[in-house]
Amino acid sequence: MAATHGSTPLAGQSVCAESGFAYGVTGADLHVRGDGSPLYLLGEWEPPVAVSSSWLLELPSRMLNARHAVVGFAGRHAELRSLHAWLAEDARLSVRWLHGSGGQGKTRLADQLAAEAHTQGWKTAVATYAAGEVVRSGSHDLRVEGRAGLLVIVDYADRWPLSHLNWLLGNTLLHRSGVPTRVLLLARTDAAWPPVAEAAEGRGAASSRQRLDPLPGTAEAREEMFRAARDAFARQYGLSDTREVVPAVPLDTEGMGLTLAVHISALVAVDSHVSDRPAPGDPAGLTVYLLDREHLHWARSADDGFGTRPEVMNHAVFVAALTGPQQRDQGGGLLRASGVRGPAEQVLADHARCYPPGRAGEPTVLEPLYPDRLAEDFLALTLPGHGVGDYPAQEWAAPTSRLLTVRDKDGEAPAHLSRTLTFLASAAAPDRWPHLTRHVEEILRADPALALQAGGAALTALAGADLSLETLEAVEERFPEGRHVDLDTGIAALAERLADLRLSRTDDAVARAEELDRVGVRLGFAGRHAEALARAQESLETWRGLAVADPGGHEAALAGALTGLGFCLAQVGLREEAVAPAREAVRIRRRVIEAGRASGSGLPGPEAHEGLAEALNELGVRFSEVGRREEAVTAAAEAVTLRRRLAETDPARYEDGLATALNNLATFLARAGRRAETLDIAQEVLAIQRRLAAADRAAHEPDLATALQNLGIHLWEARRMDEAHVPTREAVEIRRRLVGVNPAAYEPRLADALANLGAHLSGAGFLEEAVPPTVEAVAIQRRLALADPATYEPDLAWTLSNLGAHLSMVERTAEAMAATEEAVAVLRRLASAGPLVHEPDLASALGNLATFLIGSDRVEEAGETADEAVALYRRLAAREPALYEPPLLHTLWVIASEHGQSRPHAALEAAGEAVALCRRLWDADPETYASDLRIVRITHADVLRGLGRVAEADAILREIDEEEGG
Questions:
Q1: Does residue 900 contact residue 942 with C-beta atoms inside 8 Å?
Q2: Which of 17, 139, 205, 543 could be 93's S-S partner, Cβ–Cβ 3.0 to 4.6 Å?
Q3: DSSP designation for 244
Q4: How far apart are CA 941 and CA 961, in angstroms?
């Protein structure tokens, strides 16, 4: 079922039924895939359930599972205080990324926070990523009324695709007015944090990260945690005197800085003491000791009537560690595909008796070993090559790991692929089990594309393993050319690893500079803009040195590096600083051309002129970003001149570039308030794109649609309302065809075209026809904004504002008000973070909202909203009069014409200001503003008449008549 967005009934319930099991939430959205399965599961946090000591003692590793909470909270009190301080912050919505290596105690810390928050009146919930997981039955009441706040814990957040985290961050559960809300994201690394932080901030959330460091390095500092764990485990064994139970491995040993390592040390110490077994003397031995206890249990179970032999159970546990929980039929298929001997149903039943589902009655099989780090260690010790003599590897392990990553007959990768590769790669880290590297490489050599299909978390884990350059380059060949929201974080990590390898193996300056350029681009895609900037600066210095030694050979590359540096500076907010490298790039491009002319060697060629045109275009962008709009126009105009000459000599090669340059020029002209000059440019661009599309439709139809859409915008801005909707309608038709081929690439632009079509139809008087395309645009943009708010929320807000206007014109007032109020809410949040970009749209939406409020007799709210709109426009017009005086005029006229009865004195003030402003605009451009001046003067007269100042009103009307009669 489709998820709802926006205001939801407090007692409403969303229910998803899949494969006979139902999952529902009350008070929150349920986001689902096309097949009805949820993207993620939301549920109430539940305190640990007490289990019997006898059951725990069957497999001592059960006592390490955080959900049983056998060990009370200890040793992380400073970190817990920091989290409580975060809960108490003023921000209504705040997101924190808590990261630390596996076994560091993140889950236990989060559970303790949840328990204490719960006692303080907070609603506590958990979010679980559902891809490849079984939908677990249940209904969860997540209503927050009467609660002190809401805390949502997201485990394994670094394994979620960014788009799915964005869906979660957009859930209405997190956006209840007046409810303090905190989202705690647990992860092993902070590699995925930058784009998540951007997404959170795009939704108006505060964001922060907290590192869970290793335990202090001294034995004394770790003894408190050891004693707490030892005594808790001893109680399960019935051991009261623990004075002789001491660590077999010194606590200050390398590898004992993990909370889990200290707990394992305590568990082994207690178990070996009670059972009178020798305790191992090294960290790896502690793990082997616990795994030996697993084997012992399998053997005892077989003796007690299990039909599954211990060696078969070993194989089944290995499969479960790689795949995670499965539905019964899928689990049986995986056992058979992996070559596990014995009847699959018997093996599954016996395995479930040893490793039951996480909750009683859940319809799952193949529950893996917990904690995850122990499961990773088990995989590593089962696969050949580790050299730990006390734990023999299994000959079936390597073939099984490969078989579990094989595609099906339709070429689809297995649903558990992400877990499989992530676990293997995480365990293969150089400081853990480096022998796993060759097993991972065998999988990737057979099918390098699996790395990308496994997702961003797997790519990040692969970057941390010591994979060969050959393997990494095979994966690199499958990278998408541009951005990929769900993979960019992992690709950046892998690109960094590649760069480190390549840079360490070459002293060739050109190769080094090119590699720095490549990795910088990938870091930028991942939102790691500061690191991208550092790479760009290093690349620039390398190219600068090369250009000094050989200007003719490397100055063009130096100019490209300067352009890239300007882009990176702009991305970290240093827009003023970004102008200088962009200008230097233009100077170098000019110098290259002049040097070629002076040499008499026939240079410069067209490539040099094309490079200058590109540098000028980028300079125009940098000028525009800092409000130097006329300079942006000048740079773009020169780029057009250069590209026009190139297109005249070789249209097939350069006409496309000319169209791009013309588009940029039109954009900069419009931003400079010179809209009258854009129409001819838009028509020329359309003529070029029609020619190109006629020759190669597949290559150029997207650009044809853009040209049609832009022409519609320029016609509309030129007030040729009856014509604007014609090219826009054609653009929509093309965009629909393109969405049918590639929805991900073209749906955003279809939404833009639909929104414009609605505006242009309304402007032409087709009021009823304007509503459906605008409603469709809102639906698309709402979905896109949930996945990527930073990119799509501004468009959504603009379209919502337009929808409100269109609905009001067909007298659907309540819907108009709702759409406009939502637009204002979004724009307020955006404008608080980026006033220069979003205040104009906020002012427009506020003006519309004021109109609806006055029509609903909400006079006081209407006045406040209208005054805010005017104040914004006044401030904007003071900075850029050509752009913002016309909308200021319109807003003042609306107040004068519509607020006369309820706010007559405010209407009179607005009318007087509107007349004065319009006279000034009319003086500069009589043809455009003659009609507007007449209208605002008549409105001024109407307001005066309403106040009883009839003589003044009549004088204005006589003056108008005399001027028109003359």
A1: yes
A2: 205
A3: T
A4: 13
Residue among 490, 431, 423, 426 at smallest CA distance from 455: 490
Measured CA to CA, the distance from residue 235 to residue 238 in angstroms comes to 5
Could you tell me which of 96, 75, 100, 68 has the C-alpha nearest to residue 84? Answer: 96
Give CA–CA dist 966/964, Å, rounded: 5
What is the 3-state composition of the chain as percent helix, strand, coil, each rounded to the nearest 5? 65, 5, 25
E strand map for 59-137: 93-99, 122-129
Q: What is the pLDDT of residues 623-681, one digit of tens each?
A: 998 889 899 999 999 999 999 999 998 888 888 889 989 988 998 988 887 877 888 99
CA-based R_g, the chain, Å: 33
Tokens of 349: 């039943």
Element containing residue 13 per DSSP (H, E)? strand 13-18
Q: How far apart are CA 406 and CA 301, in angstroms?
A: 33
3-class SS of residue 57: helix
- The CA distance from 18 to 22, in Å, is 6
CB contact at 8 A, 18 and 26: no
The set of residues, in sequence order, having a beta carbon less than 8 Å from that of 525 and lying 6+ positions away, is 482, 483, 484, 488, 491, 492
Angle between helices 881-898 and 926-946 (to 10 degrees): 30
Q: What pLDDT is attached to residue 37?
A: 66
End-to-end alpha-carbon separation of the chain, Å? 68
Token pair, residue 141, equals 């009441």
- List phi, psi (to 5°) of 251: -70, -15
Backbone angle region of 204, left / alpha / beta, with phi > 0 → left and psi within -120 to 50 → alpha: left
DSSP summary character for residue 477 = T
Alpha carbons 852 and 811: distance in angstroms, whole number: 11
φ/ψ of 184, rounded to 5, equals -105, 115
Could you give phi then psi for residue 138, rounded to 5 degrees? 150, 160
Residue 209: other Cβ atoms inside 10 A: 16
Residues in a beta bridge with 181: 93, 150
Name residue 41's beta-bridge partners: 128
**Nearby residues of 416 by Cβ (< 8 Å), 6 or more positions away:** 132, 322, 323, 324, 326, 404
pLDDT, position 8: 25
* pLDDT reported for residue 216: 84
What tokens appear for 946 in the block? 């309403």
- Rounded to whole angstroms, the Cα distance separating 615 from 417 reads 44
604 preceded by cis ω (within 30°)?
yes
Task: Give the residues of the chain that fall short of pLDDT 50.
Answer: 1-23, 132, 134-135, 137
Task: Look at the chain and count its residues.
Answer: 966
69 neighbors 112 (Cβ within 8 angstroms): no
Are 655 and 688 in contact by the 8 Å Cβ rule? The answer is: yes
pLDDT tens-digit series, residues 844-867: 889 888 888 888 888 888 888 888
Q: Which residues contact 481 (CB under 8 A, 6 or more apart)?
A: none
C-alpha distances in angstroms, 57 versus 3, 62, 69, 358, 594?
45, 8, 15, 17, 83
CB crowding 408-428: b at 16 or more within 10 Å, else e: eeeeebbebbbbbbbbbbbbb
Rounded-to-integer distance, Cα 35 and Cα 17, Å: 11
DSSP string, 127-196: EEE-TTSPPPPEEEE---TT-SEEEEEETTGGGS-HHHHHHHHT-GGGG-TT--EEEEEEES-STTHHHH
Q: What is the pLDDT of residues 895-928, one digit of tens each?
A: 988 888 888 998 999 999 999 999 999 998 888 8
Provide the residue type at 729 as one letter.
R
Residue carrying structure tokens 């150089």 = 430
How far is Cα 792 from Cα 319, in angstroms, rounded to an integer? Answer: 42
